[in-house]
Amino acid sequence: MKLLCPICGKTYDEPVQRCECGEPVEFEPFKGEPYIGKTVWERFWDFWPVEPALELSLGEGDTPLVKSRLGEELGVKLYLKNETVNPTWSFKDRGTFLALSHALRESYKAVGTVSTGNMAASVSAYASRFGLRAKILVSESASDEKLKAVSVYGGEVIRVRGDYGKLYFESLNLGERLGVYFINSDNPFRIEGYKGIAFEIAEEVSPDYVLIPTSSGGLFRGIAKGFIELHESGLIDGLPTLIAVQAEGCSPICRAFKEGKTRVERFEKPETIAKAIANPYPPSGNAVLKLLREFGWKCVTVSDDEIREAQRKLAGEGIFVQPASATGVAALRKLELPEGVKVVSILTGSGLKTLKNAPARKIRECPLEELENCLG
Ligand SMILES: *Cc1c(COP(=O)(O)O)cnc(C)c1O
Ligand SMILES: [Zn+2]
Asked: What value does the mean pLDDT take over residues 55-72?
């Protein structure tokens, strides 16, 4: 399958990571038929640009779509796509699995990524699973605590001093020279893996809106591509309205969209509790902007207080997500959607990864002798 630049349109036969113009590349849209099968990889077998290494799957994907009560007061039907149940507790595993299937077939001995959070843990875990070495490049400021969840899988964690934004491009260049396959936030195979979220949603409901927490833009592009391929294959009647959700304190894509720009500019001094979506200079930002404009989709920002509130409400329904993953539900009340519409919010990652900021309740103390009182 050919790779295509969504911005300038140039195509490539070889598996490049980015276009010469600097923008991300993606596989040409695929049209086809699903099969009957146990996993999303099998049901949509023809839709992946590389054969998934099923024998090495850790069970990523096929996550629950949970009917929520949280839409009731707003008069909408809300569904939660619970990606927190993936093997390393975020949707990143879908993309990592497919990208590693490619790396294995191309006989790479090592893979890498630039991340401090969920993607780092995911690549570290799957590299071990696939028997490959992992080089995880993190910023100087990454805390030891966060890196434990990465290094536990055996990945080699390297703290890099210097400009974190440049690290993304530098890693691709050096990786190519040194034979390390870098699976960064918008690697084309990673994007393909994320299509599965759209496929699974469409198997259960036909949503009017899909709320997508957005940082680098990889997840948004993947879900968009999934729905577009279903539509072009005649498997769904129309496209849902996709809504990119960003934290107010780091919203370069929404800002550029609002100002009618075609290029995203660096967001200075990002500040939000939603660390997993705080990329100030998103590598797929321009590609997301193009999709938003082309399809008449939307971009919405939410404040840290709104995020905390949504996180608490979700926990009150039994699902504990990290702040970044609560942004979709936080955006719900700002959107003023028509009554009765079906909305899916993507719960991208687990709250157990960010216990420090969790909206926990006060714990009561009780001497055993007074237990009867305490229980009453
Ligand atoms: C990576 C991530 C996102 C955003 O995905 P992008 O592809 O960077 O836009 C959202 N939420 C969580 C929990 C993530 O780990
Ligand atoms: Zn290009």
From this structure: 98
Average pLDDT of 314-343? 97
**Angstrom distances, CA of residue 88 to CA of 112, 346, 350, 352:** 17, 16, 9, 11
Q: Are residues 162 and 241 in the same domain?
A: no
How many independent structural domains does the chain possess?
Answer: 2
Domain hosting 150: range is 91-182
Pocket test for ligand 1, best of 85, 215, 307, 319 (most atoms within 8 A of CB): 215
Confidence at residue 165, expressed as pLDDT on a 0 to 100 scale: 78
Q: What is the pTM of this model?
A: 0.97
CATH number of the domain bearing residue 155? 3.40.50.1100
Give the C-alpha separation, 140 to 163, whole Å: 9
Query: Does residue 274 share a domain with residue 136?
Result: no
Task: Bin 196: left if φ > 0, else alpha if -120 < ψ < 50, else beta.
Answer: alpha
Ligand 2 center to 4 CA (angstroms): 8
Query: Sign (positive/negative) of CA torsion 164, 131, 96, 188?
Result: positive
The answer on pLDDT for 131 being more than 90 is yes
Ligand 1 mean position to 278 CA, how many Å?
9
Reading the block at residue 312, the tokens are: 């608490």
Q: Are residues 165 and 121 both part of a single domain?
A: yes
- What are the structure tokens assigned to 184, written together? 């960064």
Q: How far is the CA of 179 from the centre of ligand 2 (A)?
A: 24
Task: Name residues contacting ligand 1 (CB within 6 A).
Answer: 90, 92, 117-118, 185, 213-220, 276-277, 322, 324-325, 348-349
